[in-house]
Amino acid sequence: MSARVQSLIDVGLSGIIIDIECHLSNGLPAVVIIGFANKAVDEAKERLRSAFATSNIQLPKKRITLNLAPADLPKDSTGFDLPMAVAIMQASQQVKEKPDDKTIIIGELGLDGSVRAVRGIIGKLLAGREQGCTTFYIPAANLKQALLVPNITIIPVQNVRDLYLHLNNTVKLKAIDTKDGRNLETVDEAEPTLSLADIIGQSQAKRALEIAAAGGHNLLLNGPPGTGKSMLAKTLPAILPPLSHEEMLEVTHLHSLAGKQYDQIVTTRPFRSPHHSASDIAIIGGGQNPRPGEISLAHRGVLFFDELPEFSRPSIEALRQPLEDHAITVARAKDSITYPANFILIATSNPCPCGFYGTAKACHCLPHQIVRYQRKVSGPILDRIDMYVSVENITHDKLLTPTKKADDPTKDVSKRVRRVRDIQAKRFGTSQKLNADMTNHDIKTLGKVSPEAKAFLDRAAASLDISARSYMRAVKVARTIADLDGTDGITLPHISEALQYRNHTMQAETQLV
């Protein structure tokens, strides 16, 4: 006797339907799993034996062969436990109801018969829905995430005994229709730990943060140590708008693939701050079993590189593709996987190893040390950063001045950022695209640069010898500044301010040395 049940396997952010076939034959009782399964999948036979025994379900005393097709794809998910159990019950004719071709079963079994949560449930549901599947049996622990996926029917399963009774029409499990996928309990937004009021002075840097948040622009803060560069970067999440439903779906799925808490919903914008000693794989993603790295975990949020030149050269250069394409392709011998990586890059840098070159304090670095330090960040990477701000020292007498709650500009800045995001959504027809994402065609058709502003930009580009990419990025920043001012076109003051945020720090100082 044989039976067939469907499940899903992760392939990057997508999935492939796996047919789980079960055949019972005479011979010594054994469970054999074939179909390019790794050790985690092969160990399922012990989980199946224990789960059947503790759930009072008979395991056939025959040779049980389980085939995971297509057999040429590697299988590494424990989510095949539950569908294998159903296939065995079907083949042994212990259940009356048989799931059809539009039904997917996913779940890991515990030794007590309980059904445990699995990693990457959102991607599996989306992939199954795209391939015409409508009904999904999933672990009850994954229900909270699954409710984000619209237009499917979910049947949460607590243990294999409940599913056995359900398929025999004895005690039916409750089916949930997700409709528009917004069956999510209201989550109170956490108060930010840092606000703009905590930063003393640094008006230009605060203005740059507002522009970066409004238009999705990358920002580099350069200055001596102790001036508040890291604090400025950490205030950015406080002025960013909350995640939309679609963004929450993307971010939750990515974190489910990589994190230990893969059954939780991510409701706030990510802020990832990897240490400079992090490995290239940790930042880029990949590994023996590919997982998203820090640049993908920062998707729809902020990636903070504190002391950018201290990171390894390969890690810095790996930012080239995601800064341009908002995606990272991890190519390995076994497979090639693409993860989204649309983030705002906030980086900090000192002018030299000791940090005091060009300041009032004495610099103890030798010229060649300064040059080597600054050259760790290549020109192509610098060219992909939209805005540069020099952060200066502040007077000590202002540091302990108390700040009233009414004087906190964070909420006002956040409102302006949301207003500008709404303007961009109307301009591009989608909330997923910002001014920083504009193509050259978008800039020419939607930029609306006045003749005076264009003439000024042309003269500045010639005198500053900026690249074509930097030229277009200056227009993108000017477009965001114009949106903040509430004007339809880009005028001379907007271009002038945008040029103030061009790179006048690291490259210029290298030339001086």
Tell me what the structure shows:
With 513 residues, the chain is α/β, with parallel strands linked by helices. The chain has 2 domains: 2-177, Ribosomal Protein S5, domain 2; 196-396 and 405-431, Rossmann fold. It contains 22 helices and 19 strands. The longest helix has 19 residues, at 410-428. Residues 505-513 have low confidence and may be disordered.
The dominant shape is: elongated
User: What structural category arises from helix and sheet content?
Assistant: alpha/beta
Question: What is the CATH T-level topology of the largest domain?
Answer: Rossmann fold
**Euclidean distance between termini CA atoms:** 80 Å
Annotate the secondary structure layout.
Blueprint: E1 2-11, E2 14-25, E3 30-34, H1 39-42, H2 44-54, E4 63-69, H3 81-91, E5 103-105, E6 108-109, E7 115-116, H4 121-130, E8 135-139, H5 143-146, E9 153-157, H6 160-167, E10 176-177, H7 203-215, E11 219-222, H8 229-234, H9 236-239, H10 245-258, E12 271-272, H11 280-284, E13 285-286, E14 291-292, H12 294-297, E15 302-305, H13 313-317, H14 320-325, E16 327-331, E17 336-340, E18 344-349, H15 367-374, H16 379-383, E19 387-390, H17 410-428, H18 440-446, H19 451-464, H20 468-485, H21 492-500, H22 506-512
Helix pairs in contact: 7-17, 7-20, 19-21, 20-21
